[in-house]
């Protein structure tokens, strides 16, 4: 048993963390995060050069990673910096392209930006209720329907779309310039888009794509959960620092036992969260990946909410301000629950196995 | 034991309901329902509508222009206002300074200031908290020094709600730095346009602007702007805190929010069915509904006691703690129910024709974040627990 990172992953973690701390500090992050395109193209290129994208794919697909642990390392660093760049879309697209055996050099080098369109307004988290349709075959395939919450869709060059062709759920490649894209900035920073498809030309990537899409979602969940662990570490550090500095009633407020215990409860949940994410990362790609992804996402939903809300409360006012970084970490931690299935959605999935 | 309102109270409820139905402009209630920030004009207009009927200064005695309501009548009025999506009455002049002047002010202050609060001439804001004096309010440092027939004020206030609209601010200032903390504080009135007063906006977590910092640099105001006795401001501050706590359970707003969550859960889909049929989500809603049902009664029990004893007791801290937590849970559910469509930053959606969630839900995530303030302001929930520990447990 060994819970330490390999030398390569540790180096990647260090270089990404150092780069983001120095080059993408929260002041810059806030300038980028809340206005379209919610993206800094130069920094994106530099992140790619550091290997943030190559680490997401296995060697035989042109990358140098692709395991759950590689994904964790990248996204934990992104979470520490609440980086708004569209890496989640790149990861999920890379999983699909790897399954399809398709070329992805442009994605991994950062030259082309990819997003994945699964969610729909009436099927926010579930593959089985997707309503967008594909028709035609060969060179004349077209897609119709509306895809929702396409993360990174506001700057994507290529969008991989989940759509129904008869009773099969396929994955199709659409050039963003062929679709109607309505981009928006999100509450917690970063961008997404609604993608309107109306007989939009598309290329078939995977004909029977349910398993591939579930794998992409599982990888996305490992990514989001790792991001949350990084963000929780930071928000907890801020909180403990504040407890040590802030004086009221003549003492630092960290002397009050009620606050000490609550800061410990935050820490306990973070450690539990870190553990379940390690498990989900280890299982990614295996037969039980979906089960452990659901466990991780449920626990992260709970731990992230506790950490966000308690951090705000224990800061008493100051963390309610835009100027103080904790507010942005708190928003990210809360809104992360709205991506790829929330606390209840994943709890229900784990619960369903009890009856089965 | 009789849980029913009296016939007179029921009649009163009918009177309030019909007045609101006839006089609350739809454009104002629509704005309240949508959950964004209200304009100053809307708030001023609503105050004027209530003032015409004599229902604006809900806790003032009749001789100063109040309606002379019992606590139960005030409760009924607020309940109906919530149901009608009326704006909240801006409390700083009406619920805070007004009662203070009535109790501690001199005749000149009462006769000049109170009418201007009622008719909307003056918008007041509150200068209490400072960067170093939040929960520990008595440690405040803003200094007022007497110079002949003037005060000279230096210092900084913060969390000044709606100060951007204000003409005047009432401040707690330190006037005797040598006295024991609570003993050297005075309650002083300041014009916002006096030279040396500077207001800077604070942008909140969700992007909104409702609070401000106010800086005082050699600000001169007449000595007669002192309310009550010099160095006795803490007595006023404490008196005000009990007034701030009436209605603090926010039961009406939570009932409104509960109905919104239920209606939203019937409209949005999860797993191919209305979210209302999702057992986990509906259990969350049911749990809050149970808490709220109990809170309605807890609130009325304390109201009844206040009515009998003439003043709310320390147990109203229970209303603050539980009431804010219920409100926050409901905001959490309203955000959660929307799933991914909760994400767009309000106002950042570039194409107005794109509907994301059901109507009036665009602010749900923003409202959740903004609402975290309720367990912090007005004496944080931790401070309320301290109060209960001292007063109820005597520990």
TrEMBL record, chain A:
It comes from the Bacteria. Residues 6-88 form the Acyl-CoA dehydrogenase/oxidase N-terminal domain. Its cofactor is FAD. Residues 208-353 form the Acyl-CoA dehydrogenase/oxidase C-terminal domain. The keyword Flavoprotein applies. GO terms for molecular function: acyl-CoA dehydrogenase activity; flavin adenine dinucleotide binding. The keyword Amino-acid biosynthesis does not apply. Keywords: FAD, Flavoprotein, Oxidoreductase. It holds the Pfam family Acyl-CoA_dh_1. Belongs to the acyl-CoA dehydrogenase family. This is Acyl-CoA dehydrogenase. It comes from Litorivita pollutaquae.
Automatic annotation (TrEMBL), chain B:
The keyword DNA-binding does not apply. It comes from the Bacteria. GO terms for molecular function: flavin adenine dinucleotide binding; oxidoreductase activity, acting on the CH-CH group of donors. Residues 231-392 form the Acyl-CoA dehydrogenase/oxidase C-terminal domain. Its cofactor is FAD. Belongs to the acyl-CoA dehydrogenase family. This is Pimeloyl-CoA dehydrogenase large subunit. It comes from Litorivita pollutaquae.
